[in-house]
Design goal:
Elements lengths: L3 E5 L5 E3 L14 E5 L5 E4 L2 E4 L18 E3 L1 H7 L3 E5 L10 H14 L4 E5 L3 H13 L2 E7 L4 H9 L3 E5 L3 H15 L2 E2 L6 H7 L1 H9 L7 E5 L4 H15 L8 E7 L4 H6 L25 H10 L4 E4 L1 H15 L5 H15 L8 E5 L16
Parallel strand pairs: 7-15, 8-9, 8-11, 9-10, 12-13, 12-15, 13-14
Antiparallel strand pairs: 1-2, 1-3, 4-5, 6-7
Helix pairs in contact: 2-3, 2-6, 3-4, 6-8, 7-8, 11-12
Length: about 375
């Protein structure tokens, strides 16, 4: 008997735990893992963390997690923040935080005997799924925008995945992936939809809790497109809080590019449609219609968080400042989070004496450096 079911947070309906079910049969909303009985756990940063697979010894890993935290003294001083840290998620095996979620998602896929999967991605998730699929002997079809950075497409291909380059927007890529998996009767291993992916990204929160001695920083600020790390961190911190292993929930904030800001607009009561989206150098958060957008907005409210949007010039300027002032080469998506901290401080959401943490979600070599965008 499984210790896991999938539950819809919108209507509460329960579904069996498998990878064929992506959305609620009743209302179509995304599903989340619910632990209905005692089951396996894995050691993460000194904590026993519940997981959705059944045989921990057979889980898939490339050594993901346990990424370092470093202080940004110069940028913190420039932003007027006493303690500003970053967690270097680009030190995961394929160069982004996505490896946390992929390791768990594909462990479940391998346990279920799945041999072929489909994913759509602007780059990082595609590379991650390709690597872990190669490790597990699963064939991967990766759908990516034809305009995605060449370095990311090359990384996907080198793992042996079949790349489907789609002309059009990021959302056109998703539509093409969905049509393909349905037409061919395959499994859609979507980092945006799969509830198992978020069980992997929740490990971020356990590492943060341990790094800060059981009391997380006052604020954690994420770049948010589909919300893969943001929602996973919320799940992790919630488990820690429910189990009495931390005393409070940190405030969780979301940063988007002004050219693709559906969550920021919705959380602030503004209008937004897919037609409003414009290209952004922060490709990892270029999502006009996030599958879990409503869930992200709900978590922002529950975590006393704020969503902000930053301009292209701010992203480019922060990417250069991270490299030149702190020695950290981050992709533009990660730089967006740091640019957002400036807005949060200016709005009084973050006070000068607060402790702040942001993830550097992806490495700069995975993207193009845009010196033509002045910051």
């Amino acid at each position: 008997m499984s210790h896991v079911s999938l539950r819809c947070e919108s209507c509460g309906a329960a579904h069996p735990s498998n990878m064929d079910i992506l959305g609620c049969h009743g209302c179509g909303c995304p599903l989340d893992v619910e632990y209905t009985a005692a089951g396996p756990s894995v050691p993460i940063a000194g904590y026993d963390v519940r997981m959705p697979f059944h045989e921990p010894a057979a889980t898939l890993s490339l050594g993901e997690g346990n990424t370092p935290v470093v202080e940004l003294s110069k940028i913190g001083e420039a932003l007027g923040i006493k303690r500003l840290d970053v967690k270097l998620e680009f030190m995961n095996p394929t160069g982004s935080y996505k490896d946390r979620g992929t390791a768990v998602m594909l462990s479940v896929a391998r346990e279920l005997g799945i041999r072929e999967i489909v994913e759509d991605s602007s780059g990082n998730a595609g590379a991650s799924v390709s690597a872990y699929a190669a490790r597990s002997g699963i064939k991967a079809h990766i759908f990516a925008p034809a305009s995605a950075p060449a370095a990311k497409l090359k990384q996907i291909r080198v793992y042996g995945a079949e790349v489907h380059a789609i002309e059009g927007s990021r959302d056109d890529t998703t539509d093409a992936a969905i049509a393909f998996y349905k037409r061919n009767g395959l499994v859609y291993a979507s980092h945006a939809w799969s509830p198992f992916f978020f069980e992997g990204t929740k490990t971020f929160a356990f590492e943060v809790a341990r790094r800060y001695g059981g009391e997380p920083p006052s604020h954690v600020v994420f770049p948010v497109g589909n919300g893969g790390l943001f929602l996973g961190a919320w799940r992790g911190f919630s488990e820690l809080l429910d189990d009495g292993r931390i005393g409070r929930m940190p405030r969780l904030h979301a940063v988007q590019a002004a050219n693709a800001m559906p969550i920021t607009a919705r959380s602030r009561g503004g209008g937004w449609s897919q037609a409003d989206a414009q290209p952004t150098i922060a490709g990892g958060i270029s999502v006009a219609a996030p599958a879990r957008g409503g869930q992200v907005v709900d978590v922002l409210r529950r975590a006393n968080g704020t969503a902000v949007a930053v301009a292209e010039t701010e992203i480019a300027s922060m990417q250069k400042a991270l490299a030149r002032d702190e020695g950290i080469f981050a992709e533009p998506t990660s730089a967006a989070a740091l640019a957002g901290i400036h807005h949060l401080a200016a709005e009084g959401v973050i006070a000068p004496g607060d402790s702040v943490l942001a993830p550097i979600t992806g490495f700069g070599l995975k993207d193009e450096v845009r010196f033509d965008v002045e910051g």
